[in-house]
Specification:
Two copies of one chain form a homodimer. Chain A has two domains: 100 residues, Rossmann fold, CATH 3.40.50.2300; 150 residues, 3-Layer(aba) Sandwich (Rossmann fold), CATH 3.40.50. Chain A contains ten helices and eight strands. The first copy, chain A, has a four-stranded parallel sheet with strand order 2-1-3-4, with helices on both faces. In chain A, helix 3 links the parallel strand 3 and strand 4. The longest helix of chain A has 18 residues. Chain A is elongated and about 70 Å long. The termini of chain A are far apart. Chains A and B meet through helix 1, strand 3, helix 4, helix 5 and helix 7 of A and helix 1, strand 3, helix 4, helix 5 and helix 7 of B.
């Protein structure tokens, strides 16, 4: 039987940091069954916090907190000391070091990371841009984009575009199909802004079969035929070569990994 | 003069957890100027790690690591002990507690969080869904969606849809305009799946003016007129009432905050 560990994530804001950490760390224990359903965002009330901690103790949970208020942090600390509850305070160690280094005291105000500032507007604009210029919908986008993603069908162009847009990069993407001529505009894009995605044919076949399956279609179509996939990839590689594109192999990479590698590439040029 | 603190984020994978933490914690020190440009993803080589640590020490930086390998963690620990470098290891404390609680040793393999599993496919499908059914493009989407977002122009429907899609929720959104009749399909959507966004008129005005500005248009159009905005909001509230929609005030909320509140609402019904 799998060992089961409930994880309590308590935050006075959204609690995204805890969730990221817990997902990353939990992946290191594939035989442990973590229960990630105990999320307590926007926890600001002391009594509410105490009651969550009591439940966590009963459940023998691991507690991860992102609390910016000293009061709340102290409650967790006192409770843990009294009861032996195991917890990790992600925020306080960082804040203590900065406080000590700079002499500046932290605000202790929850949710201040999110403001209606230029960064927010740029992010919204980039997301709207990526939606508008997804899938080669409008060739005008290539000339306005910070980045143009090329790839054959099912190389994660759309999710990658959205992920990068969330980081305020304006992305246009274009599916490559051997039978469809390239839009002229693409040739006017500086080559450092073009990223061509490639993927191992066998992995691509698996992804396309899953796609067909989810659409309720037969899995033995030309779309998932390994020779057709190789033909498409050959064509794509020719295009990347012609355009001088930066080529990225997305095989077995997550959206986050691919996006990080693309950002590293862009940093070298922008 | 603002105090300046360089932050080194070192990860053997993407390093998203560090970035989330650092952004959240840095917001607590508005008078400190954090330099977040020192990101070192995919750090797996011992010599490379040592050289990054030496640079961090020279820069008098705060170091945040997310390393799953004991070897690399030990190198950071030894270095810090020898030199006094201040660092936070986000991963190891969590992994130690789980190890101790379950007796299961962590894999220590970087990047295992990201797999080509059903979760990945569902996420890609949800993102593609959100792009396809953004902005009321196709009324069919309302009936297939897990969630329908309604709101007047500039209430963050698109970024919210994409954020939720990234969490595998299929979202369709529809802009509400008093002069445009509602699509019939919306009336067939169960009310628990409908979320209506509202916003304070003055804040909306500011957002719309910024939008006009970014489009290079005059800021005094009807679009940013406070009376027009109030008229649109009145109409929207009438629609929410008629449909029995869950109403969410997005004023001064970040995408993350609004999305978290929507997920809490959905959790109560799904």
């Amino acid at each position: 039987m799998k060992k089961s560990v409930p994880l309590y994530m308590i935050s006075d804001s959204v609690g995204e940091t805890s969730l990221k950490l817990v997902n990353a760390a939990a992946a290191q224990f594939p035989t442990v069954d973590f229960d990630l359903s105990y999320r307590f965002p926007f926890t600001k009330d002391e009594e509410e916090l105490k009651s969550i901690l009591s439940d966590a103790l009963k459940d023998s949970a691991v507690v991860v907190t992102t609390l910016v208020s000293d009061n709340l942090t102290q409650i967790v600390e006192d409770f843990a000391e009294r009861t032996g509850l195991q917890y990790i305070n992600l925020m306080s160690q960082f804040m203590d070091i900065v406080h000590q280094k700079t002499g500046v005291a932290p605000l202790q105000q929850a949710g201040v990371v999110h403001k209606l500032n230029q960064e927010y507007f740029d992010r919204v604009a980039a997301i709207e841009f990526a939606v508008k210029y997804d899938d080669g919908k409008d060739a005008k986008g290539f000339l306005e984009a910070d980045l143009v993603l090329l790839g054959i069908s099912r190389t994660s162009k759309t999710p990658l575009s959205m992920y990068l847009a969330n980081n305020r990069i304006k992305v246009a993407n274009l599916p490559l199909i051997p039978e469809v001529p390239l839009p002229e505009q693409i040739k006017a894009v500086p080559k450092d802004k073009i990223v061509g995605l490639v993927i191992e044919p066998e992995v691509q076949k698996k992804i396309r079969m899953s796609r067909l399956n989810s659409l309720g279609l037969a899995e033995n179509s030309r779309y998932s035929d390994i020779n057709r996939i190789k033909e498409e990839l050959d064509y794509a590689l020719g295009v990347y070569d012609e355009l001088g594109a930066f080529t990225l192999d997305v095989t077995n990479k997550s959206i986050e990994e691919s996006a990080t590698l693309i950002c590293e590439h862009l940093d070298n040029f922008l």
